[in-house]
């Protein structure tokens, strides 16, 4: 029995610092249609409401931009993820910016409140900022602080408004009575662009980061094996894949915050497929394709679609579907 895949489409770019990420999911669909691949006609699609209109309104929350709109996105992602998981489906999330992941994680915990959740974060960035530490105010740099429930006040640089604090605290514990993810259950792959505040949080909480150099030297299979060994105590696993984890010189610069010296698409494919084959994995998310910034037409979206196909094949393999029901 194969996993029942359903696709959540979140076109929000409220959390991003550049414009165009909202077009990312559509660009991935375009990549499929360009080669006459019926992929998006095979699996049920769940397009979420569009709240990008908040970008046209005055921002009221300096250190968490568009926070009122982001709250609606967070809730929409969380509730849809929860609903799909509760009926036994496997959500593949295609999102604009990485802020979406905070809602996805909340939805997973809402569906499985008693389960211990492990997170594999494949990204160039740590995304561990909070309104108290952010240098930009862009929420796509904050989803993990929401999930960890850690504002890193020891290294506070900003004084957020009362409105910001109120909404932020509501989202930290929404759908759960405690933190959603423990630092020991968070694993980075490819993170290489972080600020001082994030570095301090990583060091103090012993958060694991498998560098690009380690991936290249040890191989993707060895890295995934080590990741899964660390997350062995976890009941379920969520994988978040930001396309900026990949080397922009090899793929393209079609993402909001490209960083050099990333993993190769072939390495990303092997990591993602091996994680998809693991029965504990319950959700995988793809984020931050931005066709407006692509210097090679739609290459980033085409690369993302190729990876999406590989993940889907892995999910549909007998190896991944064996004992999925029993694992969660």
Uncertain stretches: 322-328
Q: Percent of residues in helical segments?
A: 25-40%
- Fraction in beta strands: 5-15%
Assembly classification = single chain
Total beta strands: 8
Shape: globular
User: Under the CATH scheme, which class?
Assistant: Alpha Beta
Count helical runs. Answer: 13
pLDDT averaged residue by residue: 95
Task: Return the CATH architecture.
Answer: 3-Layer(aba) Sandwich
Give the termini separation.
16 Å
Rg over alpha carbons: 18 Å
Order of neighbouring strands in the sheet with most strands:
2-1-3-8-7-4-5-6
The CATH homologous superfamily:
Ureohydrolase domain
- CATH topology (fold) name: Arginase, Chain A
The largest β sheet comes out as:
8 strands, parallel
Domain module tally: 1
Structural class: alpha/beta
Strand-and-helix sequence, N→C? EHHEHEHEHHEHEHHEHEHHH
Which tags fit this structure?
alpha/beta, Arginase, Chain A, 13 helices, disordered C terminus
What report would you give on this structure?
- This is Arginase.
- It is an enzyme of class 3 (hydrolase).
- The chain has 328 residues and is α/β, with parallel strands linked by helices.
- 39% of the residues lie in helices and 13% in strands.
- It starts with a strand and ends with a helix.
- The model is unreliable at 322-328 (pLDDT under 50).
In a nutshell, what does this entry contain?
Pathway: Nitrogen metabolism; urea cycle; L-ornithine and urea from L-arginine: step 1/1. The chain is α/β, with parallel strands linked by helices and 328 residues long.
